[in-house]
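Standup notes
- DV: blocked on the single-chain target, sequence here:
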Amino acid sequence: MIGFGICINKFWNNLKINSMRRFFMIFTCAFSVACGDGKTEVENDISCVVINPDRRDVIQVSDFVESVEYIKLEATPESLLKHVDKVYVMDNQLFVADYATKSIYIYDKTGNYRNKISKIGRAGNEYISMDAVMFDSISKEVIVYDLMLEKVLYYTLDGTCRKVVKRFGSKNEATRFIRDMERLPNGNLLCCQYLHGSHEKVHIDGLWEMTSDGEFVRWIKQFDMVHPSLDPIFSFHYMDDGAIGWSPVEYEDDYSYDGKTLKKLISFDVKGPTAKTFTGVYNDQYYNPVPEKMFNSRVYTQHKGDYVLTYWGAQIKGEYYYSLYNICQNKVIVGTINYMMNDGTAILPTAYYKSSEPTFTAVNANIPGVIVSYINSGLFFKEDLPAPMKKTVEKITSGMSENELMNLNPVLQLLRVKK
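- DV (later): unblocked, structure below
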């Protein structure tokens, strides 16, 4: 672990208290609509954030990042990761989900490997696909959703399978195809769907709640029309106040859900073609492309502190850009990221390709006020990195042997945002 002026314990201590600066403080409730079964959907007096990809600027990391911390995840023959898809802190341990290896790796808070949950197979307590990973800090469980076998598996922290729910959600045709899932404080599961087309003329686009046994509870929100979209990194993300953030990638609104109320937080006004422009085209044939067209769609959104960081993609053209919205100042910047920090170092992108802009991949993590990203190990061997990035790489890899460098796992990069 490499420190940059702060101690990793600060992150752990902040998990014990809720952030005092909620970005909800600038919103006042304008009206509410009954959602049924005691549920309420609230549309606040929200900000409309204009995203114009044709007017790009530079997002300065030093303007919104207060400090940086790195955690090197120990690489052993049992803990070689390919990707970092989700990070969760529970029981003073780091849980890292890697959908590529279909495993959840468990580390202590300094990155030392402890154990993993990897039950791949067709037996009753195994899965063949890992389409969502959830964590329950109260019951101390790790939950895996297997879309291919339509089942949900509950594991204790030592990897023992405690419960298996088969044919999860299959009683309702409209809710059996789940794209993303998250655990709610009441023990139920929050599910969403963003299918690019309709399935047997059954409307299945929206947000709904299921019991832990796979029984349908209620629709929370349905959309009138299915739109095409880029495949997202994730739809749900952890909010600083413990609620679940929901960013339906093919729409321009951000929500949060706490198990009782769905709140609209932000409405993005995207200039130029969006998914809605080509709605009719995608509904006839699944994955039917839009020839010679492009549109802007979200890849991921992160709400941390007073900032909303969003990664945008222009499909077909293959262009990507970012937006950073400062809620307190009601100001948005759209463009590329300048990775320089004020001390002469630089934060690191996930990947750096000479032919294109560096890629910064944020990871869904439950650490309040911290944007977590990861750095692919290949970046540490690039010789043409800018000097400030080389300086950061040298600090991270200082004292490592050649063998350790060759087997380096992805490195977690924790960016604490300014208050």
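- Follow-up: DSSP finds five helices and 28 strands in the chain.
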